[in-house]
Amino acid sequence: MTAELLAPPAEVSAQWGQSLAKGGLATALLHIERATTGRGDWEAAHEWITACVRQPVNSFSGAGVFYGAPAVAHVLHLAALHGPRVYERPRMGLNAAVEDIVRKRLAAAHHRMDAGQRPAFHEFDLLSGLTGLGAHLRVRGEQELLREVLGYLVRLTVPVHGRSGWWTHLAPSGEPDERYPGGHGNFGIAHGIPGPLALLALAHLDGTRVPGQLEAIERILDWLDAWQQNGAARAWWPEALTAAEADQGETRQSKPLRPSWCYGTPGIATALHHAARATGDPARARTAEAAFLDALEDPDQVHSLTDETVCHGTAGVRLAARRFAERTDHTTGMRILAAASTLPTPVPAATGQGLLEGTAGISLARCSLAAETPGTGWDALLLLV
C-alpha cells in the first residue's frame, strides 16, 4: 500500500502537516477526493485532516494557498462542501485569518507599486502569491475580496518604466542572480503571468468583474503574442525572458522545452484558452488548442517528461489535457485525449507526499481521471477549471 493511503504519522509538525505543496495536507485532500468519489471513506479523511491541524495553524502574512492558513482553509472548505458538516465551523474560523492575509498582501503590493518598484513573482504568482489566494477565494465564492485581488492584477499589468508591470527584478529562482542582471519575464502558469491571466479570465467567465479586467487580459495577451514562437511546433513560448532578450526582441531558447503544467505549453495554452473564451476570440482558442495538441504529439517534447508528478510531469499534463478537452469541440477534444493517453508513464521521481511533486498529487490526478462521479474540483486550484 502506498504511503499516502496508510494512517498518518503519530507526530505531525505544522510545517509538514499544513503544506499542500509538499506535506501531509495533500494526503488529506486525496482522502477527501477519494471519499467524495466513492473510492474511500470519510473516516480516513478525517484522520488525516485531524493530524494535519493538530498544531496551531500558521497564519503569518506571507502564507499562501499551498501552505499555512489559506491551504488548510481550502482543504477544509472542500471537506465541508462535500463531506460531514463537522468541518464547517473550523473552516469558518479560518476565513477571517485568510482574509487578513490577503488584505495585508494586497496592501504591501499596492505600496510596492506606489513606490515604482518591481515585484518579486511570489507577490503575484499562483503557487505562493495573490493569484493563488485569488483562486482560493474564487472556489470559496468570496466575490468581494476576489474583486480586490482582480483589481490588483489589473494594476499589475500596467507597464512600468518601459517594461510590463509583472516583470520581476529577480531570477526564475526567485532570488537575485548575476545571470539575470535586469531580472526576467516569466511565462509559466505556476510562477509567471499566465497564472494571473487564467484567474482574470476565469473570474470574468464566472461573472466576477472589475473595471479594466478585459483590458488587462488584452495587455497580457499582447505580450504572449509578441513572444509566441512558430516553427516545427505550431506555437510555443519561452520559459523565461532576460532583459537582454527583451531589448533585442528575440529569445535564445530554440525550441519548446518540457511540456509541463508548471512552465510548459500545456499550462500556457490553458490560460490562453480561458482568455479566448473570456474575450470571445475563436481564432485564439484554435491557436491554444493547436499548441496544446502539438505539445502532446511532438516526440521531442513528450520524451522530456521524466516523472509522473503534477507540477512538471505526466500527471499534471494528463489532467490538464482532460480539462482542456472538456472545453473544446468533440473532434479536437478526442484528439487531445487520445494524445494524452499515449504519454509514457515514467518511473515516478516524486519528492515526498505533496501535491506538486509528490505521490499524493499523482494519486489525486489518477483519482480525478478515473472518477465516474463528480469530485471536489480540487484542480481549480491549478486554474485548470
Q: Tell me the helix content.
A: 40-55%
Write down the secondary-structure element order.
Answer: HHHHHHHHEHHEHHHHHHH
Unreliably modeled segments: none
Task: Give the distance, in angstroms, between the N- and C-terminal Cα atoms.
Answer: 31 Å
User: What average pLDDT do the residues reach?
Assistant: 94
Structural class: mainly alpha
> What oligomeric arrangement do these chains adopt?
single chain
β-strand amount: under 5%
Number of strands: 2
Number of helices: 17
Radius of gyration: 20 Å
* Cross-sheet strand order for the largest sheet: 1-2
Binding site for Zn(2+): 262, 311-312
GO molecular function, one term: metal ion binding
GO biological process, one term: peptide modification
Protein name: Lanthionine synthetase-like protein
Structural description of this entry:
- It is a single chain.
- The protein has 385 residues and is mostly helical.
- The protein is 53% helix and 2% strand.
- It is built from 17 helices and two strands.
- The chain has helices spanning 14-17, 24-36, 42-52, 69-82, 88-114, 121-124, 130-140, 143-156, 194-206, 213-226, 243-248, 265-279, 282-297, 299-302, 314-326, 330-341, 359-370, and strands at residues 184-186, 240-242.
- It has a two-stranded antiparallel sheet.
- The mean pLDDT is 94.
- Zn(2+) binds at residues 262, 311-312.
- GO terms for molecular function: metal ion binding.
- It comes from Kitasatospora cineracea.
- This is Lanthionine synthetase-like protein.
